[in-house]
Please model this.
Amino acid sequence: MASSTHYTLHKRHQNNLKQIKDILNRNNLTIAKADKNKAIVVSNKDSEKKLKTFIHENHITRLNKDPTDSFQNHTQQALQKCHPLIEKGRHKYLINIKPTAPNLNAYIKTQREGERIRPVINNTQAPSYMLAKFLNKKLLSLIDLPNTYTTKNSYEVTQDMHNIQINEHNRMITLDIKDLYVNLPTKNIPCITEFWLNRSKHHPATTEHIPYFLKIILKQNYFQYNNQFYQPNNSNAMGSPYAAH
Model:
């Protein structure tokens, strides 16, 4: 009886989903997540056009095929060459077993007029994601950059601002940079990293292998959208663990 009831509910659930999809398609609507909150937004399909505009305006190259397998091989080969930095027993924890190309999605900015979007890429299944996560933690422990200012969340910003002394001659501004990540140059990141590692006088193997890993990770900046594969030109990968640093 329990199995029969479960089957009936499952079929009813499928039927309800189909009806919802039919209603959305008939009215040219789509469902998307809201930016910076947990709401779900039902809107017209302009967000799809805006994603295409995002790809076009930022000169993102369309690839002929999915490069995931090739990137997976490069990641594995890089790990084999760097035993002094990462012992062989840890290699399996730094490789996604079944990697897939990251998906490009759009979050709706409900706090802005005109339903602006924030392009979002989920990199967790990308070939180099685990390696990038490891490298990010490693760099944070190895390099102490001067004049570095970061914040964890809006609450921390509020607390910091509360302690700022402002008079009538001061002005406070905020900047919203359009398409920040795909417009950040990355060409010199390995060289700059090597410079700071040398300055901190780390082991030569560390100074050699970390920039090498960075080159591998930086090349694996790509995503899929509508069953097509794209690669930004010399830019920071959205959703990668190293991107925020």
Summary: The two ends are 56 Å apart (CA to CA). The mean pLDDT is 78. Strands lie at 29-33, 40-44, 61-63, 103-108, 117-122, 223-225, 228-231. The first strand starts at residue 29 and ends at 33.
